[in-house]
Amino acid sequence: MWVAHSHFVLFPFVDLDVPCSNMANVPSPANAYLAHLPQTRLPSLDFIYRLECSMSSDVQVVGRPSASSSSRIILPIAGGAVSGPRLSATILSVSGADWATSLPGESFMKLDARYTLQTDDGRFIYVKSKGIYHPESASQEPPTNVNQDQADWFTRLQFEANEGPYEWMNYVFGIGVLTMHQGKIVVDAYRLTNFPGREIRLPA
To answer: Any idea which UniProt keywords this protein has (predicted)?
Structure first.
């Protein structure tokens, strides 16, 4: 139900039963520095969805120019599935890729993925994802399984959706926590917020 309120329209973000990491009462470690400033707290994470995707074997290694230390690698996304309390969708086949860059002799990669979701009710959502992959130890061979104890693997998620049931996603500051299972990428998507479990505000 849409409820008018001042210059905004309130739209429920998640049901209160949806898991969230409520950090509303956890002081920020920043309070120990420049202590004359107002006290702050840690933000919370509201769960949005879990994504599983397959990467195409057609990896395109562009390489690096002579004046650069990084190498471009294009990793096409073959497809996948998304499931969450307010979103069920598939990743459109060959709708995007990860235009990653890597440093020579390192496993560290900067990620730059873009792809399209099609929801079960026929809507399209464009996803932009920029982040890092930094394993604890270097590996000469591509891994097939990566858990959270083995790498820092995070992305900043941005969504573009039309007006309607998914418009709230345009106003989400998204965080992706990545792992790999049997060669498939897994992304747990969260909304970073100061208001866990509460409504998102849309412009009127």
So the answer is: Signal
CATH code, residues 3-10+19-27+42-203: 2.40.160.20
Nearest to 51 by CA among 91, 86, 98, 21: 91
The pLDDT of residue 1 is above 90: no
Q: What pTM was estimated for this model as a whole? A: 0.84
Three-state DSSP string of the chain = CCEEECCEEEECCCCCCCCEECCCCCECHHHHCCCCCCCCECCEEEEEEEEEEEECCCCEEEECCCCCCCEEEEEEEEEEEEECCCCEEEECCCCEEEEEEECCCCCCEEEEEEEEEEECCCCEEEEEEEEEEEECCCCCCCCCCECCCCEEEEEEEEEEECCCCCHHHHHCCEEEEEEEECCEEEEEEEEEECCCCCCEEEEC
For the chain, domain boundaries: 3-10+19-27+42-203
